[in-house]
Structures are given as structure tokens and as C-alpha cells.
Amino acid sequence: MYFYGSMVAEYKKYELFGKTLFEKMVIIPPFKKLTLLSDEACFVHIIEGQYISVSEESVLKITAKESLLMKCGNYIAKMPVSANPKKYEMVAIHFLPEILKRIYDNEIPSFLKNRSGNFNTGMVKITNELLLQKYVDGILFYFENPAIVTEELLILKLKELILLLNQTKDAPLVHQILSNLFSPATYSFKEIIEAHIFSGISIAELAELTNQSVSSFKRKFEKIYTESPAAYFKTKRLEKAAELLLISDLSINEIALECGFGSIAHFSKCFQQQYDLAPTKYRLSQKNKSLN
Question: Is the pLDDT at 127 greater than 90, yes or no?
């Protein structure tokens, strides 16, 4: 794990068989972490703050009392600065194949065994699950009372979480991830690029997701797309924005965000340069043309 621009105010963990199993963190944002889950999966529950998880295929925003289940793969975790709350608190629980085999005596439950089929879902958000919230409350209690924590208790709590996840209302996607927990989804360079044209993540973050340096990423990108990443994304985003201005009732600000622009000012400037009209005037001019 790599942390950028953040202060870890509190960090606690419990290990099982020499491997990190449960973690509790309180962090003062801004926060960014590159997580390479090469041989493990992870369950994250947000207690306070907003958590943004970026995978090779998608971006998910998680808020307080929501959870995220991730199978092995590359992820970037971010937490932006906000007025309220001013801190980020979470619990993370790790699933490692060697631990699962050991605690189940090599008799892995059927829903954890690989299923046939190509499931490329790498992460799923789990919302408003009371049982999971109560479970996390119990984990927090054990972090405050380490004297009562034993190896047997950690094993029981890990098994309990797996059973609870198997019964959530998000069960179909959870089942896909649990049954393919340690089979990483594979994505080509172009698949990762196409998945993030409108997500608004940076070139540096795309380089991280594709396991390359920024310079190597740019060279490969230009070889495939015959133009720079900045030029390609700008063109694609403006094309989508122009289309949304015609076919939707979204506000200019909503369209800017939908198309991956960081601010309405930047969007308006880029749009004016491309179409010689401000977004609002472009929308009106196109509607007038259709009426005539």
C-alpha cells in the first residue's frame, strides 16, 4: 500500500497466522492509496467520510455505513477533503487463500469455490445492510478490547463475515465475487482506457492501473491511439457533452461532471474552444435549428 498526502491519525490491526486480517484506520484527508491486491481480496466498511475506489473497469463512491467488496486486482483509493466530516474512518478485512484453506480445513464452502463462466466484476458496493453494520460494531469493540481477542475469535469473525456477505441483498454480485475471489479479472490496455474516458481520473492514475510509469503509459497510448492521452480524452468528453446538450435536460454543471471534467469553468473553456460557442448558447442554437 502507498499513501499520498494524508495523515494517519490512528491505525490498529489484528493478524492471523502471521498475515494482516483486520485493520482499523482513521485518516485526515486528502487521502490516496494505491492498492495492489495481487493474491487477496478485501472487504472495506466506511464508518465516516467518503471513499472513492477506482478499479481497471469502474469508479465507485462509498459513503458512511456502506461497504465495498473487492477481489484481487489493482485499485486506487481516494478520499477528498470535505468540510464535514473532516476525517475518514474505516475497517478493512482481508481474505487470503492460504488462510481460508486453513480455517476451513481445506473444505472450502461451495459458494467460495470457482464457478465456470467469465465474471469480470471486480468490486461491488453493499449498501445499508444492518447485519453488516452490527458486525462492524463488534469488530470495533474488539479493537478497543484487545485482551479478549484470540486466534479462535478471529477465525470465527472471518467465517461470520463470509456467511453475512453471502446473505446480503446484493447477493448475485457478491456471489460472483466470492466464488471467483482469487481469480483476477484481466483487462487489456484499451479496455481500461475505454472504461475511464468519462471517469475523470488523472493520467498518472491510469498509468498506475495499467502498471506502468507515466512516460511508458503515454508512449503506449500514443502508439495505439496516434494522439496524446490529453487530446484523446478531451475530444471524447466534448463529443459526449455536445450530445448531452442536445438530448438531455441535464444542467451544464451536471453535464461537465458526467463527461469527466473537474470543473464547470474548465469545461466551458474547452467547449468554447472546440465549438466556438459557450455550452448554453450551443444548446440554444441547436434547438433553434431543429425548430426551423
Answer: no
